[in-house]
Amino acid sequence: MYLIVGLGNPGRQYEATRHNMGFDVIDKLVEEYQVPQAGVKFNAMYGKGRIGGQPVILMKPLSYMNLSGGPIREMANYFKIDPETEMIVVYDDIDLDPGQLRIRKKGSAGGHNGIKHIIQQLGTQNFVRIKVGVGAKPKGWDLADYVLGRFDKEDRALIEEAQERACKAVELILTDSVDAAMNEYNKKTGNV
What we know:
By secondary structure, this protein is α/β, with parallel strands linked by helices. The chain has a single domain (about 1-185), classed as Peptidyl-tRNA hydrolase (Rossmann fold, 3-Layer(aba) Sandwich), CATH 3.40.50.1470. About 40% of the residues lie in helices and about 20% in strands. The longest helix has 23 residues, at about 155-175. Its main location: cytoplasm. One of its GO terms (molecular function) is tRNA binding.
């Protein structure tokens, strides 16, 4: 069984913001693969279903971004999931152009506080992540204001397409391999 986690912040005021990219991808996965919601457990919304024939748990931690690691650790322990081989984390990345995907097997937090907390709670950097580019913050902007802001119309179109590709990347990881997904989705797209 795979645990697929989308990072974000709970609450209406955070919906469709750059920082809620992970939540948005999980919502698309739920819709596309008709994954039934199972409720709330360990301070996270979750659902259980199948993607590409593989059993999955889709999870949105409700602890706020910077404390995402606790609910993830508890969920992984409860369902006996090995984060190093059976977990995918989806989140926003300001170092990538809007709509660009970057899939990695492991790595540091790269300044992302949600990932930093997950690494701290799990005691490992070795877990698959799908980063969705939201673009660099404009000069002079506060980082928090930027990531908690929303996309303009032009970027929104790129982001929606990227979310679709992120869903397909999840399925490819589950049905083939992380390497196959990296080969397919880490290349620059024509419109980015």
